[in-house]
């Protein structure tokens, strides 16, 4: 038998019709109601394969199916559906620096509030802060073409900062290979963010414990 052929192909000729039919009919006839038609029952019976491939869902997929059904019931989209629908994509018409200037001002107010709580632990708070609205400059990177890019952070992912520049260009800067400077008006000071330390989702970074490192090489 060729490898591509199914192990469940019917037997040739009339063999498949005769094989075991007498015993099966006798068994069914003993266990069904007299008013039922044996031939009709046999024709409606579904085959059961030894690998259970006849079932709607295999055993190992039950949990995944339950999760999908729950998401559908709750009206949630899966990650694959979100990518297909481009839920997180920023539309081209929104690539305008001026649209995000109010967000930048809001972020500076956010930093002022953190500073008002005391400057002693400010750096630790800054590491865990939300950077949507922060004005960043790429000061060091393994890709020379990114050096000097400045703009407002409009989206952060686990591995990227997406920055809109004054030229209305959307730049995606990888965290793992870049360091950034941010200027905080209230402190009148620049702070350097070491990108490799920020490789995490924003929500996870807020609860992450950072270990001090003497040097960080790109």
UniProtKB/TrEMBL annotation:
GO molecular function: endonuclease activity; hydrolase activity; ribonuclease P RNA binding
InterPro entries on file: RNase_P/MRP_Rpp29-subunit, RNase_P/MRP_Rpp29_sf, RNP1, Rof/RNase_P-like, Rpp29/RNP1
Pfam families, A to Z: RNase_P-MRP_p29
Domain of life: Eukaryota
Record keywords: Cytoplasm, Endonuclease, Hydrolase, Nuclease, tRNA processing
GO cellular component, as recorded: nucleus; ribonuclease MRP complex; ribonuclease P complex
Intracellular or extracellular location(s): Nucleus
Gene Ontology BP terms: rRNA processing; tRNA 5'-leader removal
PANTHER family membership: RIBONUCLEASE P PROTEIN SUBUNIT P29, RIBONUCLEASE P SUBUNIT P29
Family note: Belongs to the eukaryotic/archaeal RNase P protein component 1 family.
The name this protein goes by in its record: Ribonuclease P protein subunit p29 isoform X1
């Amino acid at each position: 038998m060729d490898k591509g052929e199914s192990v469940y192909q019917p037997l040739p000729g009339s063999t498949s019709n005769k094989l075991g039919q007498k015993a099966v009919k006798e068994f069914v006839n003993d266990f069904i109601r007299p008013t039922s038609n044996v031939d009709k029952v046999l024709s409606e019976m579904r085959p059961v394969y030894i690998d259970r491939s006849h079932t709607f869902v295999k055993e190992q997929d039950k949990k995944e199916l339950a999760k999908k059904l729950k998401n559908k019931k709750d009206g949630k989209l899966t990650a694959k559906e979100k990518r297909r629908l481009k839920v997180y994509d920023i539309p081209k018409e929104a690539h305008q620096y001026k649209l995000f200037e109010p967000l930048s001002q809001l972020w500076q107010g956010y930093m002022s509030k953190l500073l008002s709580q005391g400057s002693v632990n400010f750096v630790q708070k800054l590491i865990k802060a939300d950077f949507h609205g922060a004005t960043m400059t790429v000061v060091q990177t393994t890709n020379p073409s990114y050096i000097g890019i400045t703009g407002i952070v409009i989206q952060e992912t686990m591995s990227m900062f997406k920055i809109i520049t004054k030229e209305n260009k959307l730049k995606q800067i990888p965290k793992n290979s870049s360091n950034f400077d941010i200027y905080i008006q209230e402190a009148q000071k620049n702070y350097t963010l070491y990108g490799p330390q920020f490789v995490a989702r924003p929500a996870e970074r807020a609860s992450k414990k950072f270990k001090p490192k003497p040097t960080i090489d790109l």
